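Researcher: I'd like a structural prediction for the single chain below. Treat it as a standalone chain; there are no partners to consider.
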Amino acid sequence: MQYTSHYTSPLGTVLLAADDLGLTGLWFEGQRYFARGLDNNAGDKDLPIFKETANWLDAYFSGEIPSSTIPLHIIGSEFFCDVSAAMCSIPYGKTITYGEIASILAAKHKKSNVSARAVGGAVGHNAISIIIPCHRVIGTNGNLTGYAGGIEKKIALLKLEGIDVSGLKIPERCAMLSSPPMHQ
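Model: Treating it as a single chain, here is the predicted structure.
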């Protein structure tokens, strides 16, 4: 059984989901794949994990590196879980490319290669945004590719972490976004 809660972030309302094993979802309302995998009968409930997650997000959005670890329950194939684990290893304030994740997975599984496109599909379907930092994954040559929550949110999250986005290739429709990080 999954339960839900809401969190108000500086970037909009977030839906949280959890089961007995851990956090299963963190979606910006209205994002692509919103509530994907959420039980149809999930309902709001005050759970300790939601308070822990809210504290983690409060620290994150105030510009701190959260010190606590949220128990996660990643639901998906072995490949999806491997991609999620690779994303979790990306340090705060750093980025990695889809191709670099593909290379890491190829080495882990002793394969000659793993498709960067398949990695991109898994990254794009990440159900636990921010905590599993899919916003830190960028395209080759610094291309700022899609983000299920919206490219504007991806840019804001990268800036919050102190990443200089000026060298990244931002889609033209987002190039005018130059607001300072949220914690300043």
